[in-house]
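User: Second chain of the day. Same drill as before.
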Amino acid sequence: MQILAIEWLGTSLAERPFCVRLLRILTLNQYWRSRMRACRGLTSLQIVALAVAAIGCRSPMEVCTNGLMRVRVSPVNDNSVSPVSARILPGTRNSCNFRVALIDIDGVLLNKNVQVLMTNGENAVSIFREKLDAAAKDPRVVAVLLRINSPGGGVAASDMMRRDLLDFKHRKNIPIVACLMDVSAGGAYYIATAADRIVAHPTTITGGLGVILNLYNLQDTLAQFNVQSQPIKAGERIDLGTPVKPLPPESKAILQKIADEFGARLQQTITQTRQPHNIKDADLFDGRIFSASQALEIGLVDDIGYLDDSIAVAEQLAGVEGRTSVVMYRRDTDRALTPYDITPNLPVLNSIMPLSIPGMDRSQLPTYLYMWQPEPLLEKNGGT
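Assistant: Same format as last time:
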């Protein structure tokens, strides 16, 4: 989370000074409930200007609104964020003894915080570990349901999440069911293979089993603006993969070797865990996608059903059919009203300023991906 310190710097209409105290912004709702003291006449337009100025702020900045008011907005990290806690979903049985923990995996899986409104956002790897730890500490949790809706993500992030799931499985020794929703491809499916049973929604898209590293050649584009790169280097290939010049064959071979290694690791894990049949490995791991029925036919999933069916499967494997509450782990400000609720994890500024050029954001994500990626901007936009 962030605290935005708003400091008064100037005067306003009729030379009447306004006094603005420290404004703690934790969520949008808490923003409007924050205590702001003014000597006179702070208008709603000026309040809105403060809120707009705070969105996505990553460094101290000055904000001027028609010369009427001027503030300095400074984001400060706040480590007092509430830990996740179990919430029983409305409409489910209120069992005192047994719980099925529904843990969601959504969006592009990256080991980085996704910037959202007024906060530092959530890190997919970190929040997943936190939810697993919370479930592990609850003796009433008898099964875990992974609700997965993700095209995949970073190779390292996917691998860490799968390892954390296996560690949880060994510690807790309870059944784990993965329910594949709209899309569960690449690293998201890789994580699902650590579950005891995989259930695919009837219209799920899965597969996408391959590795991609997004590189671009922007040399001609930059030349149109008379921009030329002038790096000072110690190490011939220290800028390996740079977008400011074409990729030489020798450099491509180096990067390709790493992609092949990661691809082999993905292939080995899935074939050992799932033992898919009726399809050649060359076809299964060329990155193609499959429908739910196709995935069932070749052994990538065990059943086809809906989220409620997956809950029933988890109860059955735990031997407590019809006797559980379904809980989700949420922070104080997150929704948990239905089993479909997710924690917001998409960058707000992408909807406000959607313009993005492939390659221009390369420095923010120089990573190999286990991800089905028909759109090159998925890695920036969070998967939607």
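The two ends are 23 Å apart (CA to CA).

User: Great, on to the next one.
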